[in-house]
Amino acid sequence: MQLFIYGDELWILFGNTPSELFTYITGIALGNIAGETVLNKEIKVVAGITAMTMWALLTIIIEQLSLKSPMIRVLFDGEPAIVIKNGKIQRKAMALSKLNG
């Protein structure tokens, strides 16, 4: 969970956002490609390195796009929930964010 204070509002972004999931899946995919390259004798090392490079470039491009484009960022990270506004707890936002309090 990440907390951001913007003016008199408290924004909460929860862990396990889609971008964190994407990073996790990318790590698994790169490890799988590396493992298959090392263990499978039918796969040439150059092909494995090429595949890992392509996957890494795809990941970097997607990460950069999410940094530059607010629309893509919302797609990957979602909208933050404002749970305290003007010093008042926003119960509806808390319920939508599956918080109690």
Account of the 3D structure:
By secondary structure, the chain is of the alpha+beta class. The chain is built from four helices and four strands, in the order ββαααββα. It has two domains: 1-17 and 79-101, no CATH class; 19-77. The chain has helices at residues 18-39, 45-68, 70-77, 91-96, and strands at residues 2-6, 9-13, 81-85, 88-89. Strands 1-2-3-4 form a four-stranded antiparallel beta sheet. It is elongated, with a radius of gyration of 20 Å.
Strand tally: 4
From the N-terminal CA to the C-terminal CA, the straight-line distance is 16 Å
- Assign the structural class, choosing from mainly alpha, mainly beta, alpha/beta, alpha+beta, or little secondary structure: alpha+beta
Question: What share of the residues does DSSP label as strand, in percent?
Answer: 15-25%
Which regions contain 5 or more consecutive residues with pLDDT less than 50?
none
Biggest sheet descriptor: 4 strands, antiparallel
Mean pLDDT: 80
Provide the number of structural domains: 2
Tally of contiguous helical segments: 4
Q: Radius of gyration from the CA trace?
A: 20 Å
User: What would the principal axes of the Cα set say about the shape?
Assistant: elongated
Strand order of the largest sheet: 1-2-3-4
Order of helices and strands: EEHHHEEH
Helical percentage: 55-70%
